[in-house]
Amino acid sequence: MSMPVRPWERLEGKVQAWHRDRLAVVYVCQSTAQQVVDHQESTRLQYGLAGRAVGLGWAPSRVVVIDDDLGHSASGADVRPGFQRLVSEVGLDHVGIVLGIEMSRLARSGREWHQLLELCALLGALLADPDGVYDPADHNDRLLLGLKGTISGATRGRTIRVNSLMEVRC
Which of 28, 73, 97, 145 has its CA 20 to 30 A from that of 82? Predict the structure, then answer.
């Protein structure tokens, strides 16, 4: 008789070989050039997510960093070329996983966030942040990601302290 698998033990069940055949995309963002200067640890940690993708099994050549929106404040995806590129790559079925420091802060609005979640769920792309790897097609992961998005929407426009060294506002 096998024991039930706990969620934190399902990582290998979430990341499949076919995910690794696609790209791992790291989305790096901070709203202002001043934040990039003042919070260099945040920028460093965001770029460091490329190493996390490699640790999850992606070949370094399959890891793409999108940092087009670093230091640019914008109210929607239409003026954020990096976010548009991210959504396009997911929509073209090129992406196996999207990594970010705070997943729900990738999008500027709840509408954008839920559209990205839906697109990832339909095409099988995973999402990952420092807290874990999420499959938006899994109802428990989708619920957690939805809650993160709701909380993010309530705090949007504020600087979020991730830890004592890092603040993110995007």
Answer: 145
